[in-house]
Specification:
two-stranded antiparallel ribbon; alpha+beta; three-stranded antiparallel sheet
Length: 86
């Protein structure tokens, strides 16, 4: 299972979506990166793989960062990305 997280302006919690396959996660990650680079589309809509009608839409201008990582079941591991915690 792979997670794609979006860090939003003025939001302490990221938005995240899951993808089962690495290739699907990579495609979504690249798509979001391209949208951030181009500023187009203005509204980014991402759907859930498990529940067809579950979707999230976010203004691309409010996205600060995107990251992709593999979800593990190991307890006590640190989250990927940048952190002030030691």
């Amino acid at each position: 299972m792979y997670l794609i997280e979006l860090a939003l302006k003025l939001s302490p919690l990221p938005l995240s979506v899951q993808r089962k396959e690495l290739e699907d996660a990579k495609k979504l990650y690249q798509s979001i990166k391209q949208s951030l680079n181009n500023g187009d589309p203005k509204l980014l809509e991402i759907s859930c793989e498990q529940i067809e009608d579950k979707k999230i839409a976010v203004l691309i201008s409010e996205v600060l960062a995107v990251q992709m990582y593999e979800k593990t079941s190991v307890v006590g591991t640190r989250r990927p990305g940048f952190s002030f915690e030691q």
